[in-house]
Amino acid sequence: MMQFTCPHCGPRDQAEFIYERTADAVVSLDAAPEEAMKSLFTRNNPRGVDEEIWRHTYGCRAWMVIARNRVTNEISATRAVGPEALP
Amino acid sequence: MSQYSAFGLLRGALNGQKHWQPAWRDPEPKSHYDIIIIGGGGHGLATAYYLAKVHGLKNIAVLEKGWIGGGNTGRNTTIVRSNYRLKPLHDLFEFGLKMWEHLSDELNYNVMFSPRGAMFLGHSDADMTKLAERGDAMRCDGIDVDLMTRDEVQKLEPLLDMSRSARFPIEGGLIQRRGGTARHDAVAWGYARGADSLGVDIIQKCEVTGFVRDGDAVVGVETTRGRINAGRVGICVAGHSGYVAGLAGLKLPVESQTLQAMVTEGVKPMINSVIMSQSLHCYISQSDKGGIVFGGDPDNWPSYAQRGNPMVMERAVAQGLALVPALSRLRMVRTWSGVTDMSFDGAPIIGETPVKNLFLNGGWCYGGFKATPASGWTYAHTLATGKPHALNAPFALDRFERGATIDETGSGPMPNSR
Ligand SMILES: Cc1cc2nc3c(=O)[nH]c(=O)nc-3n(C[C@H](O)[C@H](O)[C@H](O)COP(=O)(O)OP(=O)(O)OC[C@H]3O[C@@H](n4cnc5c(N)ncnc54)[C@H](O)[C@@H]3O)c2cc1C
Ligand SMILES: [Zn+2]
């Protein structure tokens, strides 16, 4: 199992988290139809690092962006998103 | 190619079985092929076989980065069935199922197709309604399938926990009796031997690392064994679809995820059919060697690791044990996983791409083994003629932007449809 470091709760087992989608797959409210289509349906799906949105569902329930290598599972960065991330 | 036969075996017995020949050649890549297929799984090899056999093409290569059948073809739980609700899906899979019924004869290679029945369990009234709806949709298109009562399910699989206090109560089922299992390796080897004998070059340890372009057209591939020119190129790399298509600048509606399976020690026959529960997502069958084969949900996050997470394994096994408590006494002997290309409507993609001369066969999620013959047949048609076969026309890559997705479960644009 992987271990993620929640920006709010510290290191926790992956079992507490749920994968949502990649960071570039969030449709902005004013997206043109082609852009929305791309965000909804296509992925870079790299055999390497991508930024992913995970949620600490069985913990503090906050969203975060995790940069993870999809071959080695190495995590290179984690950052909070949403109002929590504001100064 | 010498035909395999019982008589040949007997004759071999008299001279120490010294007559066996390699089942396919190990050729050096030529500088040009009319058609190159990337990926030597069952689908790629079947495609090459039908290109040569049905379309009479002579100059074809299959390029495989590892060894043939070493991908998902050799890693899957071998369930073969055509019991899908949506027409494009059950038409394609039924075409394939009919081919499975004669595949050993067609290839002169025993693929051990075993139509022992593929049964979905229903755990509630709502489940039974869903199963009936699926059954009706299939019967409307002339595909056999039967709704089962609780008693019928119990009679077929006496070891299921049918008690009213069961963790997952069983209300009935839906069975396709012509469904079953097959020997996965034999499918790859049988198609490889057949294709090779028709002149197809099967080139192993040859990874495609890039595409050679001339303007907007692909005219060849770069590989770990040098550049090879091609008239048309067909991608057929399962979990690596996104990566390989990316080498041509395409961004696909797929996300690669790990799917695991596991097998217990061999025991006497105890599971008669293929037992599946789509509400839980757990499937159980018994291999011809006696091992109980388990499968479940994919590890539900992107991965190319080809190794699975114990958390997900535990869930699949817990479901299996709740359904068949007697399995708790068995020891698990092996677990493994494969990289599957989960498409965004759960249906495959077979057809042309926006890049000229470049074609795609992928997005099979966790259900492509059963389609191997049909996938090869339709993809061969598409590669030979440049046009879709009627059966794969609905599975075009541009269906997502046209709003024509084939979403069996109605779960929307997520790469984890069942
Ligand atoms: C655990 C598990 C259980 C499954 N259970 C079932 C089931 O019960 N029933 C069912 O119908 N389906 C099942 N599936 C799905 C099924 O296995 C696949 O859909 C099917 O085997 C795909 O076949 P393929 O020939 O396209 O892929 P593969 O057999 O994976 O072949 C693709 C090949 O491409 C090669 N390749 C990749 N990149 C390159 C490159 N750059 N250059 C050259 N070669 C390359 C790979 O090495 C591989 O050999 C399961 C899958 C898994 C992982
Ligand atoms: Zn937290």
What does this structure look like?
The complex is a heterodimer of chains A (87) and B (418). Chain A is mostly beta strands. Chain A has a single domain, classed as Folate-binding fold (2-Layer Sandwich), CATH 3.30.2270. Chain A contains 1 helix and 6 strands; from the N terminus they run E-E-E-H-E-E-E. Chain A has one helix at 33-41, and strands at 3-6, 10-13, 18-22, 49-55, 63-69, 75-80. Chain A has a 4-stranded antiparallel beta sheet with strand order 3-4-5-6, with no helix packed on it. In chain A, strand 4 (49-55) and strand 5 form a beta hairpin. The radius of gyration of chain A is 14 Å and the shape is globular. Chain A starts with a strand and ends in a 7-residue tail after the last strand. Chain B has helices spanning 6-14, 42-53, 87-100, 103-107, 125-140, 150-156, 184-197, 241-247, 310-323, 372-385; strands at 32-38, 60-63, 79-80, 118-122, 146-149, 172-176, 180-181, 201-203, 208-214, 217-223, 226-235, 254-266, 274-277, 282-286, 291-295, 299-302, 332-343, 349-352, 358-362. In chain B, strands 4, 5, 6, 12, 13, 14, 15, 16 and 17 form a 9-stranded mixed beta sheet that branches. In chain B, strands 1, 2, 8, 9, 10, 11, 18 and 19 form an 8-stranded mixed beta sheet that branches. In chain B, strands 3-7 form a two-stranded antiparallel sheet. The longest helix of chain B is centred in the N-terminal third of the chain and has 16 residues, at 125-140. The model of chain B has no long low-confidence stretch (mean pLDDT 96). The chains are: A mainly beta (87), B alpha+beta (418). Chains A and B meet through helix 1 and strand 4 of A and helix 8, strand 12 and strand 16 of B. Bound molecules: flavin-adenine dinucleotide and zinc ion (ZN).
